Amino acid sequence: MPKRVQGSMKICIIGAGFVGLATGVTLGKQGHEVVFSDIDPGRVKSVNSGILPFFEPPLEKELKALVRKGKLTATTDSVGAVSASKFVFVCVQTPSLPSGRIDTRPVKSACNSIAKALRASNDYKVVVMKSTVVPSTTDSLVLPIIEKGSGKSAGKDFGLCMNPEFLQEGSALRDSMEPSRIVIGSLDKRSGDMLESLYKKMKSPLLRTDIRSAEMTKYASNTFLATKISYSNEVANMCERFGIDSEPVLKAVGMDPRIGPLFLRPGVGFGGSCLPKDVRALRDRARLDGYNSRLLSTLLAMNDEQPQEAIRLLEKAIGDIGSKRIAVLGLAFKGGVDDVRETRALPLITHLLAKRARVVAFDPMAIPNFIRLMPTIEYASSAAECLKGADGCIVQADWPQFKKIGKREISSMRQRVIIDGRRCLNPAAVRRAGARYLGIGYGLQEKD
Ligand SMILES: NC(=O)c1ccc[n+]([C@@H]2O[C@H](COP(=O)([O-])OP(=O)(O)OC[C@H]3O[C@@H](n4cnc5c(N)ncnc54)[C@H](O)[C@@H]3O)[C@@H](O)[C@H]2O)c1
Fold first, then answer.
1. Cα gap 335→366, rounded to integer Å
2. For ligand 1, atom 24, which residue shows the shortest CA distance?
3. Average pLDDT over every residue of 214-228
4. What is the number of the ligand 1 atom nearest to the C-alpha of 339?
5. Which of 15, 84, 154, 357 allows an S-S link to 321, with CB 3.0 to 4.6 Å?
6. CA distances (Å), origin 378, targets 155, 282, 341
């Protein structure tokens, strides 16, 4: 049995983003004292006021309550925050460089702060990598930076673990509090035992591994999810051409316990802050060791092309889209979030503009973020306004409110055509409201 972590622990979370805040709130709710450190003073101020810097309502509610109770605080002083803590979670971003490789500068900078704090401390602290990093990053980049900067030895003076995060945006708090599994890769047994004990209140299955296996688990999971989505898109693209509705086909496929029902919904491709970057990063990492992953290259190429399927359907319905007014509903990478990182709305609208369409776009939450990527298109203040006078509409994100589009909104369109780019609408309901329905993987025509 791992040695028990006694009572309330002091925990430092470096990086107050999706992963950092979800982790900190989860540990705060379990009675621990959490300090977030972030280089962004605006973010620190926002967290200290109990306000999330992104849209994730259940997480914000709990953050507010814990900040009010004095259980969570935030600071820009990483060194001070690490010094005062027993566990240090590294939750900074690891975005793609143009080559596909991950940008490790935020990780390096977090490690330098940890090293500075450790230099002045004789306390055994556990450093936990939660940021997604390619195999061997923790032992060949993180470890030497901390050892060199602190003058201390990993496994003796401080502990080192890799604990990948599997949460999804839109359900960040639930996923963090009830993860499908907890993977702890540890350099030394002592730190692995301490981290296991910190998670003792969680009922999730827990796997102990070495550090590189833990790093690889995250990439193996995300590239499998990307494969499942792309496979669904492949089946759907064929179904549409064969005059078949892919929905019952994929539903039946998902009933096979060897396959499972989730992530089998076709659409305009996978986006968000994780899947595309993780596929690129693993492909790049494999190349370093002389392995050419044809599967990962194919996933990326297919994903690049998938938004064009929605445009093809639109052209099938209304012909040339040059100078036509096209409504795009949903700009976030999926419904329910305001995150636009790698959203498929960007290539979709870029292709529409290249074909000289006039684009008007709406999203319930993501317009302020998307406007920074595309300042010059027209934005509507509601789905109804977006559809007014449109010659066609593409639904790009599965916001539940788009299901409520009815006769009134449809009748204001110039050409009543809805392209369901996420298979989130009911074809019969769209038709009853007076529009022609075409969807990714929907090959049936005028009847259901
Ligand atoms: N977002 C997700 O859904 C998700 C899910 C699982 C894993 N991940 C992985 O977790 C990591 C974090 O992702 P995220 O979405 O939470 O990132 P994010 O961009 O939302 O947040 C990262 C935060 O770290 C801060 N930061 C950067 N350098 C810092 C430093 N040196 N010191 C202190 N703070 C610093 C940034 O200011 C930012 O607030 C990434 O590796 C990502 O791939 C993300």
1. 10
2. 15
3. 98
4. 1
5. 357
6. 56, 37, 20
**Residue from 78, 64, 105 nearest 12 by CA:** 78
Contact 402, 410 (CB under 8 A): no
Mutational pocket test of ligand 1: of 93, 101, 221, the residue with most ligand atoms within 8 Å of the beta carbon: 93
Asked if 241 and 443 count as a contact pair (C-beta separation under 8 A), the reply is yes
CB atoms within 10 A of CB 125: 24
- Which pLDDT score is estimated for 446? 65
- What pTM does this model have? 0.96
Please give the distance, rounded to the nearest whole angstrom, from the Cα atom of residue 16 to the centre of ligand 1: 7
Q: How far is the CA of 444 from the centre of ligand 1 (A)?
A: 43
Q: What is the pLDDT of residues 318-345, one digit of tens each?
A: 999 999 999 999 999 999 999 999 999 9
- Which phi and psi (to 5°) does residue 362 adopt? -145, 145
The answer for 151, left when phi > 0, alpha when psi is -120 to 50, beta otherwise, is left
Q: Give me ligand 1 centre to Cα 33, in Å.
A: 20
Can 274 be counted among the known catalytic residues? yes
DSSP codes, 162-209: E------TTSHHHHHHS-S-EEEEESSHHHHHHHHHHTTT--S-EEEE
Do 274 and 93 form a contact (C-beta atoms < 8 A)? Answer: no
Mean pLDDT of 95-117: 97
> What are the residues whose beta carbons fall under 8 Å from the beta carbon of 118, sequence distance 6 or more?
82, 125, 146, 149, 150, 152, 157, 158
Which of 36, 116, 181, 273 is the pocket-test mutation for ligand 1 (most atoms within 8 Å of CB)? Answer: 273
Average pLDDT of the chain, as a whole number = 97
Q: Would you state the torsion angle of the CA atoms of residues 302, 273, 286, 226, taken in this order, to the nearest 10 degrees?
A: -40
Closest residue CA from atom 13 of ligand 1? 93
Closest CA to 132 of 171, 106, 170: 106
How many whole angstroms separate alpha carbon 281 and alpha carbon 219? 9
| Nearest atom (ligand 1) to Cα of 54 | 20
> Exactly one of 91, 111, 161, 274 is catalytic; which is it?
274
| Eight-class DSSP state of 440 | T
CA 15 to ligand 1 center in whole angstroms: 6
pLDDT surpassing 80 at residue 2: no
Give the model's confidence band at 448: pLDDT under 50 very low, under 70 low, under 90 confident, else very high. Answer: very low
CA 106 – ligand 1 centroid, Å = 9
The pLDDT of residue 327: 98
Which residues' Cβ are closer than 6 Å to ligand 1?
14-20, 37-40, 43, 78, 91-94, 106, 109-110, 131-132, 165, 167, 169, 273-274
